Amino acid sequence: MYFRWGIMRSITACTIFLLFASSTLAGVVKWKDENGVVHFGDRVPEKYREKAENVDLRNANAVSNDNQAPKQSRSKHPPRKSTNSQESSDEQTRQAKARFCMEAQQNYTDLTTVKHKYDRYSGGYTRTKTLESHVLKKDGTARKQGDPLMGTDIMTRIEQNRHTETLRKQWNAQGCSIAQTPNLQL
After folding, report:
1. Which residue in 104, 87, 142 sits closest to 21, CA to CA?
2. Domain extents in the chain
């Protein structure tokens, strides 16, 4: 029972990871709907494609008002609506980046961590049982339930660690700060 539950959780986490990883390669796009609500995502509805703009997650905190905001007239009462919408847009960008980085950190941890159970017996004999492990195929997709645990299309632990380390470097290049797992065998 526990073995099946662990496999199901592993498969679910790997599937989520792969869906998330493919969306990170596509990039994040920002658009506004007809109600003025700002949306973020990797797929833009057809009717908003003309107004969509790419969001650079690496520079989300470094928005320059001089270059991007339209020049305002020098009146006694500057328009507050545009300032508030700019601030809310910046805040939404920061929140999207924070969610992206938290999910990337969790995916990295799931793929580089193997949970074991150690049974100790008299005479110093120890037996190890793998409780949970996320296994990838050589093409980077998650192993499906019922697929063999060993085979020519399954990544070895070291291959999977190298693949995951490449993903970590990509995520860090996008502005995240994910530390390498200690004692990671590459």
Report:
1. 104
2. 2-173
